[in-house]
Amino acid sequence: MLFSELGLSPEILRAIEEQGYSQPTPIQEKAIPLVLSSRDLLAAAQTGTGKTAAFMLPILERLKKYANTSVSPAMHPLRALVLSPTRELADQIGVNVKTYTKYLPLRATTVFGGVNMDPQTQELRRGVEILIATPGRLLDHIQQKTIQLNKVEVLVLDEGDRMLDMGFIQDIRKIMGMLPKERQTLLFSATFAPEIKRLASDFMKSPQTVEVARQNATNDQVEQIVYSVDAFKKRHLLTHLIKSRDMSQVIVFCKTKLSADRLARELQRDGLQAEAIHGDKAQGARLETLAAFKEGKLRVLVATDVAARGLDVTELPYVVNFELPNAPEDYVHRIGRTGRAGAKGVAISLMSPEETRQHESIEKLTKLTLTPQTVDGFRPSWMARPNERERERERERERAPAPSKPEASVLAGSTEGVKKPMNSRRSRKAKREVPALLLPPRYKVEIIR
Ligand code: AMP
User: Fold this and answer.
1) Mean pLDDT of the chain
2) Staple 86 to which of 81, 216, 309, 323, CB 3.0 to 4.6 Å?
3) Closest to 212 (Cα-Cα) out of 186, 184, 189
4) What is the domain extent for residue 79?
5) pLDDT of residue 10 exceeding 90
6) Which of 6, 25, 59 to mutate to test the pocket of ligand 1 (most atoms within 8 A of CB)?
7) Which residue's CA is minimally distant from atom 9 of ligand 1?
């Protein structure tokens, strides 16, 4: 299918052609006609599927009739509001909208917290047809009466699942209450979790549902690798991988601000160009670091989940999970930073023995088997030691051939996941079946069963 077959105007087609978009992505193909028909839309789209253009291009088509070059603010009331959970995503959408409106005199601006309100206020007072905002800062502007919502025709809630995760539900409900009842509502979310469905039933009118990827699916274009490694060796392994794989650029995910900061410092000491971004950094510094990374001036970006949300770097080849996330959905979001818009990517997860539960949840959610591997020189101690212990036990067994108790400790020194005692026959069998101990504890448990 071609963009020209979707009913978009020449001004929009020209702008996207200049962006190098040759044909619509699946979400664009499905969503654009629906949005153009003024229907409400509930869309589940993976990160990197082109969802921003999927809602923004038809919105521009709808608003085209209002495009004008008048300097009067009254001629530029707000018509489309896009709510984003994070500043980075808002900024990203704003940048895209600027390129899509290149040949249309429609005004768009972005407002988010953490920066001075004054320049935002001035811009809003001049009048804008399209506003991209984080909920908190939008409410601040509404309170200051710098923006009015009474002429809004289209509302977009982007990354709705994340919006709820981040506790924006009250703000969203408040904003919804201020919008005209007669409007089009578009809700984009990585998943259709029950809370998302509830939000949809509360605020949308018989929405059409569009799903371009299996729920919680990861991108097929991304090769996923899990390496088993001791926690204290993770940083050395990371440096080794960055250098040996000659990674031109990589985003490394950490669970906490503290570990992100520490890792960035350690990588710098290893001679790598690395910077951390997270919620405690000043907004200016965050945007500067992101810009340096996007321009290819920075090799390693160490980020927390929230800070990297919405980050879109064209053809990012690698993502590393330095620590596995507690919420498996975050794994899907994280690895969605690579393999975007059809490009290939590699997602590497460094898993310490303490993280087997997270690994298990990720496999359950993604319905994938991510068998851990090892890297020469970084073989985890918990794999090596049981072999010695096992040899010791072999010797013991020779002395006393019928052990009366199961020996769960054969499972790589961990009993995690062992739910019921095993009989001695099974125990002996287990010992025969897992001599190499190449898999983490829970796999051993599965083998025994
Ligand atoms: P998104 O999912 O909206 O974050 O988009 C991911 C990336 O895909 C962005 O860099 C877009 O500029 C790009 N993109 C969106 N639509 C297309 C398309 N039809 N062809 C090529 N790239 C696209």
Assistant:
1) 83
2) 309
3) 189
4) 3-211
5) yes
6) 25
7) 50
3 lines ligand 1 (CB under 6 A): no
Which residues are within 8 A (CB) of 312 and not within 5 positions of it... i.e. 6 or more apart? 48, 92, 337, 340
Count of other CB atoms within 10 angstroms of residue 115: 15
Q: Is the CB of 13 under 6 A from ligand 1?
A: no
Residue 377 DSSP one-character state: T
Residue 420 belongs to a domain: no
Of the ranges 86-90, 229-233, 291-295, the best mean pLDDT one: 229-233
Residue 194 confidence (pLDDT): 84
172-186, 335-349, 362-376, 413-427: range with highest mean pLDDT: 172-186
**End-to-end alpha-carbon separation of the chain, Å?**
51
Per-residue model confidence (pLDDT) at position 329? 80
Question: What was the pLDDT predicted at 275?
Answer: 94
Domain co-membership, 239 together with 280? yes
Q: Are 51 and 27 a contacting pair, CB within 8 Å?
A: yes
CA–CA separation, 210 and 218 (whole Å): 17
pLDDT at 189 over 60: yes
**Cβ of residue 100 lying under 6 Å from some atom of ligand 1:** no
Taken as a whole, the chain contains a residue count of 449
Q: What does the DSSP 8-state code read for residue 232? A: G
pLDDT score of 418 more than 70: no
Residue in this structure with the two tokens 């206020």, named with its chain if needed: 121
Instruction: Please calculate the CA angle 325-264-216 and round it to the nearest 5 degrees.
Output: 25
Reference 257, options 304, 323, 326; nearest CA is 304
Ligand 1 center to 202 CA (angstroms) = 30
Q: Are residues 184 and 207 in the same domain?
A: yes
Pairing status of strand 300-303 against strand 372-373? unpaired
The whole-angstrom separation of Cα 442 and Cα 435 is: 15
Q: Looking at 211, 246, 279, which one is the last position of a domain?
A: 211
What is the Å distance from ligand 1's center to 50 Cα? 4
Same domain, 107 and 13: yes
